[in-house]
Amino acid sequence: MEVEEFQASGLDLELVRLNAHTIEELFPAIADADGLLVQWAKITRPVISQLTRCKVISRYGIGVDMVDLEAAKRTRHPGV
């Protein structure tokens, strides 16, 4: 369903689907991502600090307990 929604948006994007639960499984696939749609993997301060282009982190599910909100608020990458 997500793929169809993204395609219908008209945005020029590449959707990479990962079934990752650890940071080791995430990288290098997300290092230069513009955005993350997170379901299971914890997006911690160390993960956020390694993202070079990320502009948005969205939790696919209920709540935002999988995302370090303080780190996300404080991190600014060049060009963002």
Could you explain the architecture of this structure?
This protein has 80 residues and is α+β, with helices and mostly antiparallel strands. It has helices at 2-8, 23-26, 45-50, 69-74; strands at residues 35-38, 56-59. It has a two-stranded parallel ribbon. It is globular and about 30 Å long. It is built from four helices and two strands, in the order H-H-E-H-E-H.
Describe the structure using short key phrases.
single chain, 80 residues, alpha+beta, two-stranded parallel sheet, 4 helices, 10% strand
Task: Sum this structure up briefly.
The chain is built from four helices and two strands. The protein has 80 residues and is an alpha+beta fold. The model has no long low-confidence stretch (mean pLDDT 83).
- Helical percentage: 25-40%
Low-pLDDT segments, ≥5 res: none
**C-alpha geometry:** globular
- Look at the structure and give the mean pLDDT: 83
Using the CA coordinates, give the radius of gyration. Answer: 13 Å
Structural class: alpha+beta
Largest sheet: 2 strands, parallel
Query: What is the H/E string?
Result: HHEHEH
Task: Tell how many strands the DSSP assignment holds.
Answer: 2
The rounded distance between the terminal residues' Cα atoms is 29 Å
Strand content is: 5-15%
**Order of neighbouring strands in the sheet with most strands:** 1-2
| Secondary structure tally, helices | 4
